[in-house]
Fold these 3 entries.
Entry 1:
Amino acid sequence: MRRDKNFRPDPNLNPYKIKESPSITRRAFIDFNTQRVCPACGKAIKISHNFCKYCGVDLSAIEPIGNSDEISKQLAITAVTDPDPEVRKEAVDTLGDFGETKVLGVLTFVLLNDSDENVRMEACDELGDIHHPYSLDALAKALKDESAIVRKEAIEGLKKIKKKNKPKEFDEEKPESRENKEDKQKPEEHSKESNSGSF
């Protein structure tokens, strides 16, 4: 096979050439009318699914944002697709202020996929404020984020969720057990006093 010295490959015919450089600012599209986002793993699934096909989390108790009011849906679209990071951050903040479980999936998606560290940090903060245990997995993944401020906020979010969801059995038992101990000690003290008075 002889090569022509004047041969120059045509870059437009190269099938291995990346035609479009991957853009960090390109936003993923989620159709919230037909899809929902898993709050644990942040992946999009069909809106009709009650279990995440990726991580197996039960979603039956969480309403998809696509089935909710139009304002929440538009804010979710803005949080995921707007080209301006400040606008996305404000949309995430507003969704978090709603404090409803239906926004968990959107916040998780933003946390795991947004290109701007401030937007991801805001998503961490809002997930921590909602205190839902499903957010533990997403915040644990955020501990490996390239940004230090996101990792720090993920730690704070984990603290908030753990503190809010810790078992209350121990706290409730302490006052009762103290009262029981005091009640048990009082009759003994009375019997000691009556015994000492009789001698």
Note: Residues 62 and 102 are 6 Å apart (CA to CA).
Entry 2:
Amino acid sequence: MANPVAIITVHEVPEAVKRGSSPAVSAKRHDRGAIPLVVKLYPELSIAALKAHLDKELALWYELRAINVTGSGRLVLNDALATLVSSFGYSRSTAYRLLRAGDGRFWELGTSYSFRPGTGPGWHSVIEIYALSRVAERFSTYVHRLSQPVQVPVREFRGRKAKRAWLYSSFFKPAGTKAKPIARDSIMDATGVERRQQQRYDKVAGIKRVANFACRQDAQGNLVPIRHLVAGKSRVWEKDRRLGNTYHSAALTTHRGMTKRVNARLRRSLLKGEARLQKRFFLSAKSLVRSAHRAEESFLRVKARDRVIVGRVEWCIA
């Protein structure tokens, strides 16, 4: 991976420069950019952007943050464009158009007086990337808390369809973590993505689907499947009750970074007494007992050793 080259930036030309001496020691620094390896996604921001039709701008914000490897928050425009074209599959015209569309929303375009190694001082166009907290507060209508972010390899985050698919897939837990059942209609309400388009994104982003079944305790305390009648054209038969599927994305978990501090700011901005959604599925008996917002029909995940059918994911009605 190429090492980022730092340059010194001052927003006004200092008198020392005009006299031909060295730049001020207190000058700020920012990156010329580097070739990134992964893109870090925040699930709540991704879903909010899909619903607000700002997914192209948010994807570019993710990519600019990936290029800004030192975390300075500033990039030289020409260097950032070169990396966007080579690593993320943009054309220069598309990158320019999206940069103008997101100016004042996710970043600011401006100029700075910069000292480049080998070229000397001069004015250069720069991108000032907005902080995570500022972007989260922009989506405060949809985002009340940030969960753990995930990361996607840069080689997978190329092309319009693939980027939208990865933004959508960040809504689901990564493989290897416990997740709760959810119906396609509920996913559509949460993400704004239609059912058929969900299935297309599942294939592009490698989302895995697992079926879930409902069960109950009989009079002896044994677990038995919940059965229901299904009416066909010529006959009626019984089958085990299906719940929503469990979905897992192919993205990997990464460090939380600033999410804890941003969540504290988001909590302060929420109105007191705001209505909360009722929970229907619980991963442990402890969370079921402690929940103050439990739905009338709630389910508890059955441990692997207690399942009616080995290898099948089952939930017992509470």
Note: The chain is about 30% helix and 25% strand.
Entry 3:
Amino acid sequence: MLISGFDVRWRTFVIAAFAAFPALIATMIVWAFAGQLALVMIPIVEGGAFWLVESRQRNGLHLRQYQAMADRRKATTGRFYCCGVEIDPSRSEFGMIMANTVPVPGRGSGPRNTPEPETRQELLDTTFGSPTGPRRKSNAVPAGARR
């Protein structure tokens, strides 16, 4: 949707339109006490409306703020709500949907048929194969090591 040359999402437009009426009411109430300074109430109320509707929680199910507030208000001891639906924890069942790992032959908790590689290069050679054939161990001392 284009408004005065700005591309605005429909949801943003609806939030701004519905928040305009409470913003004007708040501005009229504060105008009686603070005069023109009351115009600050318009962006404050609009910002609050966007925070309630557009922002989400940073933890848990990432619900919108107004959904989380409504669920907190409804919840009592022993009753849980998620997105306005009551959740009965006594009817919950635990189960595995799908295993998230795949066993690798020769690597795992079972007996191993091959010895563990000693160096990173041996690991690469045994995994991908060496282009020059098997490598021999070198007797060279790495730099900085003492003999």
Note: Helices lie at 10-34, 41-54, 65-74, 120-128.
